[in-house]
Design brief:
14 helices; seven-stranded mixed β-sheet; 397 residues; Aspartate Aminotransferase, domain 1; 38% helix; binds pyridoxal-5'-phosphate; five-stranded mixed β-sheet; single chain; alpha/beta; Aspartate Aminotransferase, domain 2
Length: 397
């Protein structure tokens, strides 16, 4: 079994890394990577077992620690994010949990954007609170709020950009500079799920750690749940890996294989879905039954210029408010025939969601009102169908 190693010092362009990095080849010299469906690995003798367990000899021991198929996925994603290290996790949420539990201790403080995925907010303000870790939530786009929320106890800054579902865009370079100028040891963590490294590379803009829900565009076809933590060797390979190996929220070899294959076509899918979303957003803006469209590719989006600098395309998720209340939003959703009514996103198939009663249902009314998740808000994650068919499926009159 061998992992593909580029010629000494050679770095390839992202399109090449997407299909080559981490390539794995077994004794059969197969071209497509094998799935190592095994829980443990066999040693030649007792001395080798001892050497592997004590890390004096490199090699696999047990799939909760490392597995070749999972390793291949980690290497490919690390190459795409431009990072030296990656650890794959069982879900996007276990990626965030692993970052928090390996980087924080009781008494620490986190500053997070108030506009984040529903479960991420719950994990920060409910789960972490049980371990005496304090969280302050700030407006993603207000740099003064980030500045004034930092304290000597702050160890982590967390945000996603663009946000789910309102597509607010946070200034990765500016927020990273503010945090690091205050204390160079603060870890700036960015959830890069909506853009993927195809559209945005947060580590190049100053962030320390990227987390992913691989469930979304990395799979891209709605098959598996998974996640990843990407960053430097000291944090990811030492701290996060050591937590993962002990606590066990790792990725299965089968899922890693699906994600590995997903990475190969991710750029084609993400770029096309983003172009389709642009057409849909512009059409929605013309509809009298639509009050407001949220999409970073529209020139009236408050962070339109920032999105153009920071991302190569706006992404494929948009949200809009319909005239009326929850009834109007539900009626629009229920009249669709082609679109899938589901909470997932990043699929080849366009999905339609009512965030107020699904992805953000566990937030209090006050929390929802604070970030603008209203009963008449609809989210669409645009896929790869012909955009005209998606338009015809939305009966907005
Ligand atoms: C932005 C964002 N981050 C994290 C997650 C959590 O990922 P997972 O469902 O893979 O745990 C999601 C899921 O929808 C998400 O949209």
């Amino acid at each position: 079994m061998s992992l593909y190693k580029p010629k000494q010092g050679k770095r390839y362009r992202p399109a090449t890394e997407a299909v080559r990095a981490g390539q794995l080849r077994g004794s059969e010299q197969e071209h497509s990577e094998p799935i190592y469906a095994t829980s443990s690995f066999v040693f030649d003798n007792a001395a080798q077992a001892a050497a592997r367990f004590s890390y004096t000899e490199e090699g696999n021991v047990y799939s909760r620690f490392t597995n070749p198929t999972v390793r291949a996925f980690e290497q490919r994603l690390a190459a795409l994010e431009g990072a030296p290290a990656c650890v794959a996790t069982a879900s996007g949420m276990s990626a965030l949990l692993s970052i928090c539990l390996s980087g924080l201790i009781a008494g620490d403080h986190v500053v997070a954007s108030r506009s984040i995925f529903g479960a991420s907010r719950m994990l920060l303000n409910q789960t972490l609170a049980r371990f005496s870790i304090d969280v302050s939530f700030v407006d993603l786009t207000d740099l003064d709020q980030w500045r004034s929320a930092l304290s000597p106890k702050t160890r982590m800054v967390f945000f996603e950009t663009p946000t789910n579902p309102l597509t607010e865009v946070g200034d990765i370079a500016a927020i990273s500079d503010i945090a690091h100028a205050y204390n160079a040891d603060i870890k700036v963590v960015v959830d890069n799920c909506f853009c993927t490294p195809v559209l945005q590379r947060p580590l190049e803009l100053g962030a320390d750690v990227v987390m992913h829900s691989a469930t979304k565009y990395i799979d891209g076809q709605g098959r598996c749940v998974g996640g990843a933590v990407v960053g430097d060797e000291e944090f990811v390979d030492e701290q996060v890996f050591s937590f993962m190996r002990t606590a066990g929220p790792g990725m299965s070899p089968f899922n890693a294989w699906v994600f590995l294959k997903g990475l190969e076509t991710m750029a084609l899918r993400v770029n096309q879905a983003s172009d389709n979303a642009q057409l849909l957003a512009e059409w929605l803006q013309q509809q009298s039954a639509v009050k407001q469209v949220y999409f970073p590719g529209l020139s009236d989006h408050p962070q339109y210029q920032l999105a153009r600098q920071q991302q190569s395309k706006p992404g494929a998720v948009l949200a809009f408010e319909v005239e009326g209340g929850q009834d109007a939003a539900w009626s629009l959703i229920d009249k669709t025939e082609l679109l899938s009514i589901t909470a997932n996103l990043g699929d080849t198939r366009t999905t339609i969601t009512h965030p107020y009663t699904t992805t953000h249902a566990r937030w209090s009314d006050a929390e929802k009102a604070e970030v603008g998740i209203t009963p008449n808000l609809v989210r669409i994650a645009v896929g790869l169908e012909d955009p005209q068919d998606v338009i015809e499926d939305l009966h907005l009159q």
